[in-house]
TrEMBL record:
Residue ranges constituting the NADH:flavin oxidoreductase/NADH oxidase N-terminal domain according to the UniProt record: 27-239
GO terms, molecular function: FMN binding; oxidoreductase activity
Keywords: Flavoprotein, Oxidoreductase
Organism: Caenorhabditis brenneri
Superkingdom of the source species: Eukaryota
Annotated Gene3D superfamilies: Aldolase class I
Protein name per UniProt: NADH:flavin oxidoreductase/NADH oxidase N-terminal domain-containing protein
PANTHER family: BINDING OXIDOREDUCTASE, PUTATIVE (AFU_ORTHOLOGUE AFUA_2G08260)-RELATED, NADH:FLAVIN OXIDOREDUCTASE_NADH OXIDASE N-TERMINAL DOMAIN-CONTAINING PROTEIN
Pfam families, A to Z: Oxidored_FMN (PF00724)
Length: 273
């Protein structure tokens, strides 16, 4: 997190957009223009060969070749999923141990290289869709609790989710995020952003509307956010701040509020990297 130079100013000079932005671990952006995460749904989805789900295609690489020449301060990828059975959409890019291959590593490494061509920091957004996985992809996805998504912005139906056991929180979620973050680091990305917004799994844990757990991951806000801190600590155990690798989160202010409607996606964001 950087120090704010204009804490209480009513007007802020636009020249600040051209300034560097320095993070606590020493990394700097060349300016303050950020390309936000925008899902492309342009990766592979293979019914015959699930191991080949989520390979970035030439179309994605082509777009990032353009953005990578745009002199951005930071470029975020679209949401890259950490579990092939818990997707935002068929066609998401995915990093998962079962799909490990030289081909996948080469494609993700090439993706990072294109993003960084003009000096931008390349940050991969990591997500797990949980109950917001389309029903045709998986009729019984994971979630914090077994509360089904009853309506959403798009014309998609969602199955009844299964609540992760306390042990599965580690094996099915924390470990997958750590694997993907390490993969991103090894492929040359400068950091990861955890997707903790828009009704996806991490916000299913933080929101009291979708988290009715009675174990250490439910109840108080400290418990509901525990999974996020565990993911952060586990990533940092593998990739310490001294490497320069950034670990951030995208969160959503309204999903923390009690008694929200059960509506899933919601686009009020707070960025914190
Ligand atoms: C087509 C489209 C795809 C998006 N995909 C993602 C995504 O993959 N991950 C994410 O966190 N936000 C996604 N968003 C949300 C944007 O990153 C952003 O938070 C949202 O558009 C609000 O920002 P704005 O007020 O600057 O438009 C998407 C938005 C659009 C319009």
């Amino acid at each position: 997190m950087s120090l704010r130079r204009f804490q209480n100013a009513s007007t802020i000079p636009s020249e600040i957009l051209g300034d560097h932005l320095k993070f606590r671990n020493g990394r700097e952006t060349q300016n303050r223009f950020l390309k936000a995460a925008l899902t492309e749904i342009l990766s592979t989805y293979s019914l015959e060969e699930p191991k080949k789900h989520g390979l970035p295609t030439e179309s994605i690489l082509n777009i990032y070749d353009k953005w990578g020449n745009g002199k951005f301060g930071m470029i975020l990828t679209s949401n890259v999923l950490v579990d092939p059975n818990n997707l935002e959409a068929a066609g998401n890019a995915i990093i998962f141990q079962e799909g490990e291959s030289l081909e996948r590593r080469a494609l993700f490494s090439h993706w990072a290289k294109l993003m960084k061509k003009d000096g931008a920091l390349a940050v991969m957004q990591l997500s797990h869709a949980g109950r917001q996985t389309p029903e045709f992809v998986n009729p019984t996805p994971w979630s914090a609790s077994d509360i089904q998504l009853v309506s959403a912005a798009r014309n998609t139906t969602y199955g009844k989710p299964k609540a992760l056991t306390t042990e599965q929180v580690k094996t099915e979620v924390v470990d997958r995020f750590v694997y993907a973050a390490k993969y991103a680091y090894e492929c040359g990305f400068d950091g990861v952003q955890l997707h903790g917004a828009h009704g996806y799994l991490l916000s299913q844990f933080t929101s009291p509307t979708t988290n009715k757990r009675t174990d250490k991951y439910g109840g108080t806000i400290e418990n509901r956010q525990r999974i996020i801190l565990e993911i952060y600590d586990a990533i940092r155990a593998e990739i310490p701040p001294s490497t320069g690798f950034l670990v951030g989160i995208k969160t959503n202010s309204v999903e923390f509020q009690a008694e929200r409607n059960n509506i899933g996606r919601c686009n009020r964001n707070v960025y914190s990297l």
